[in-house]
């Protein structure tokens, strides 16, 4: 057999093996089994401490699987991210990113297009998919994260070797990944249409608008008929932090604004941000910002003066 024939034969076997793995899955959902996929790029991104970047190619679907590190994804709000998290970016969503100085991110980034092609006696028209049924951010447990680590590494390796393996191999592996993600996400797959998501949204809005009050997460969960553990899971999925951490984040943002743009005394700012003791407020503020409230105010005002000079 000629060398070129061997290459074609091996490539065909590789593609056939992948195809068999796909068709052997007995429970592929309607939403994934009719998808036609085209991969633009797969990147294994190792960032450096303090790295910053933006999402450059915004007109495609993207998965960002975080292997290591910690950082922030900024859309209309800040989302804290860490290893074991998956971000799904729909086409058109703008986002900036940064790594924490002490734990730079390492991510596998899969940029792709997809369309639905169904067969019902005859082939139907190809319909581009504007958004897949995934949340923006998902947090996985250790066992699931290890499995996804292997899947994303496999897709990247097949992308690098695509000239030998054939262009269909990465797409078939992405098809398998989409199906696996579907099954991992079954409990929350239609969460945006469920009462649980409505409860989460109402509690999130309550934290954002009533942070000055003495709010209790357990009481809010009971009021909106959602378990505290499931509420925490949803906050982690959609904000990157738990409900208590999210409330502290909102209060901290307000406190920073009061310190920089008003002359209110520290004890008054504490009460305006939901803290009834100045000591507790100062302790929490320093934990989140590395400075006491008074030192933060002095630093920011000094920076403002130096800029105007």
TrEMBL record:
Keyword vocabulary terms for this entry: DNA-binding, Transcription, Transcription regulation
Gene3D superfamilies to which the protein is assigned, alphabetical: Homeodomain-like (1.10.10.60)
Molecular function as annotated in GO: DNA-binding transcription factor activity; sequence-specific DNA binding
SMART domains: HTH_ARAC
Any Pfam family matching the protein: HTH_18
Residue span, HTH araC/xylS-type domain: 201-299
Domain of life, source organism: Bacteria
SUPFAM superfamilies xref list: Homeodomain-like (SSF46689), Regulatory protein AraC (SSF51215)
InterPro entries with a match to the protein in the record: AraC-bd, Homeodomain-like_sf, HTH-like, HTH_AraC, Tscrpt_reg_AraC-type_HTH
Record's protein name: AraC-type DNA-binding protein
């Amino acid at each position: 057999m000629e060398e070129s024939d061997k290459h074609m034969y091996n490539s065909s076997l590789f593609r056939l093996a992948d195809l068999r793995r796909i068709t052997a899955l007995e429970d592929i959902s309607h939403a994934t089994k009719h998808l036609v996929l085209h991969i633009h790029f797969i990147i294994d991104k190792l960032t450096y401490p303090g790295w910053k970047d933006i999402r450059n190619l915004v007109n495609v679907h993207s998965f960002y699987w975080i292997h290591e590190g910690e950082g922030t994804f900024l859309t209309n709000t800040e989302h804290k991210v860490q290893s074991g998290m998956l971000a799904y970016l729909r086409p058109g969503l703008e986002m900036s990113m940064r790594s924490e100085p002490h734990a730079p991110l390492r991510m596998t980034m899969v940029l792709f297009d997809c369309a639905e092609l169904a067969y019902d006696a005859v082939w139907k028209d190809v319909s581009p998919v504007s958004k897949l049924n995934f949340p923006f951010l998902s947090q996985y447990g250790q066992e699931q994260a290890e499995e996804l680590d292997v899947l994303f590494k496999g897709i990247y390796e097949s992308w690098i070797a695509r000239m030998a393996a054939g262009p269909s191999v990465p797409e078939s592996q992405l098809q398998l990944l989409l199906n696996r993600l579907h099954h991992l996400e079954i409990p929350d797959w239609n969460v945006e249409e469920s009462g649980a998501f409505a409860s989460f949204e109402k509690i999130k809005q309550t934290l954002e608008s009533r942070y000055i009050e003495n709010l209790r997460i357990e009481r809010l969960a009971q009021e909106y008929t959602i378990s505290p553990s499931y509420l925490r899971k949803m906050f982690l999925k959609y904000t990157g932090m738990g409900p208590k951490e999210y409330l502290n984040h909102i209060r901290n943002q307000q406190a920073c604004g009061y310190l920089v743009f008003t002359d209110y005394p520290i004890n008054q700012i504490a009460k305006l941000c939901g803290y009834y003791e100045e000591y507790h407020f100062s302790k929490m503020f320093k934990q989140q910002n590395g400075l006491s409230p008074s030192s933060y105010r002095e630093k920011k005002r000094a920076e403002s003066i130096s800029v105007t000079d």
